[in-house]
Amino acid sequence: MKGLIITTRNTMRIADFDRPAYKSVGKAVDGYIEIVHPRRLEFPYCMIVNEEGLLRGLPLNPYGSYLYGIEAHGNPIVGDIVILKEGFVNGEPDLVGLSDEECSTFADQISAWSGGRIRMEEQK
Predict the structure, then answer these.
(1) Which of 17, 24, 59, 107 lies in the 20 to 30 Å Cα band around 30?
(2) Each residue's pLDDT tens digit, 15-39
(3) Cis bond leading into 38, ω under 30°?
(4) Helix runs in the chain, H state only
(5) Residue 33 in contact with residue 49, Cβ under 8 Å?
(6) In contact, 49 and 68? CB cutoff 8 Å
(7) Is the pTM of this model over 0.85?
């Protein structure tokens, strides 16, 4: 499944994640995952963050904080984030991937929001 990673270093990249999602997505956020439903991200989209990010002193993620609505409650999002969708796998609620079109649309929106400061990483 594909997801879009937005880093604290102002880069983003499309990544393929394996099942179980909590392990592969956990590597992308460097720890235990927490599924967040930010006010600026409509269902079924969700943001995956490091559950212990604040405790570990991870750096601020400006885009994640914007999506979450930091101005409304003051709680920042820290560390790298992953944008995915919620859906069903084998009849059970689970994380599901983004389509190529959704990845492209999100990347364009993020680049526009940041005035071009958040850029797609070069493919290796």
Answers:
(1) 107
(2) 999 988 888 999 999 999 999 999 9
(3) no
(4) 21-29, 53-56, 62-68, 70-73, 100-113
(5) yes
(6) no
(7) yes
